[in-house]
Amino acid sequence: MWADTFLWVFTYIMYSHRHYAMNNNRLYAQQALLAPFDLNSTLLDKTLLTITQQGIDYADIYCQQIYFESWVLEESQVKSGHFHIDQGFGIRAVSDEKTALAYSSQINPKALHLAAESVKAIRHHNQSYRHQIPKKPVASSRYASINPIKSLDSIAKINILEKVDRIARKKDPRIIRVMAQLVAKYEIVYIANHSGQHSADIRPLVRLSIQVIAKDQHNKEEGSSGGGGRVDLTYFDDKIIEYYTNLAVDKALLNLKANPAPAGQMTVVLGSGWPGILLHEAIGHGLEGDFHRKGISAFTNAIGKKIAATGVTVVDNGTLINKRGSLTIDDEGQTTQNTMLIEKGILKNILQDITNAKLMKAVSTGNGRRESYAAAPMPRMTNTYMLNGQYEANEIIASVKNGFYAANFNGGEVDITSGRFVFSASEAWRIENGRLSYPVKGATLIGNGPEILQHISMIGNDLALDDGVGVCGKNGQSVPVGVGQPTLRIDQGLTVGGVAV
Fold this sequence. Notes:
This protein is 25% helix and 36% strand. The protein is an alpha+beta fold. The protein is globular, with a radius of gyration of 24 Å.
């Protein structure tokens, strides 16, 4: 009985703390984004009411303030530093499939009124179809409400970059160039919609990016690495700095001795972690709701159908603590979720924002994201990854007699409608008789997302997420994301582009 009481009290305290944290964020955002400009929550509600009275389905106001700082090292010197503040608001009105967005970098009652008048232009010519938004659950904070820019002074920030340079050059004399960038971003958002819901979020984000160039008597190659997340700059301690730097150097040195990649269809093994970018691009975008509604996704009308090998389970999880793609709330004020996309090969769900979900008679999955107040939200991924299987990574490689191992990627392109993609490998190996025989370079992977899902024959038990560098582009908007997967064996559907043998 006592234990049950203790558990109830503990749960209540944790819930109260989370509720307090969210309320505290909202109060802080009001003080930062509304009060200094003669705005308040009541005025936002009145403004939204004037819009929805005109036959508008949905309306919201998104206020945002961003502090951004960047330091860049090159040629063993910190050559540039950049700091800026951006702020503004956007008012959105939705009527059926039409969306109107008006925004301003000036936050004040006059600008708010003018923007509201502008978006009314898409109103219905008959009765109101005001869309009621279900009350959302209280969100648990996915990261601390901290300003990472203030977490270290300028000297400490410069020291991080100088350590990268020293470690890289000391590791191998063939390193002839080191470039490093340290970025910190602090974002405050306040969101109000026509249903009277008000939400706020305080979002930290940091990243360290490293690129090195190695040269020997015959070749010149590069290697890159980096990472970060929704933490402050103290995350980059000596151990992390050394890890990222060594990773970049090792890639460059490996490519110095690499042979040209072979070309042709072959069995491909994808490494764990960042190679999940292929999953993100070739499959993830096709599971975003707007592409389904428009009928242009390769997976349109496939919910409930088997679209992948039986062992394939894929989620989009915006709730991971401190991860780059995580959000406490999305950019429509909805709580982010851990959404099951593919379960044991069956397509279970697609990613939705509020307005697209309404048009499809569905509900938001907390995936409404926008680049800034000057852009409209749309369904976007957060942290998208495949869950573990049963095999050891070395067991998967040992199972391949003649094939190709892609340990890392640079990037790629995908056609959402067909699912066709092209990716370039930044670190790759030839597999011969069950072992990694020699490194190769200049390889691309060409295939079709829906097809390769069917031909995944072995899934590793070494799930890893990327280190925190992912940026996703869609319709001209870029947002931070996370990707990941365990080691995978794909038997068919992939063509390695390289040198004909």
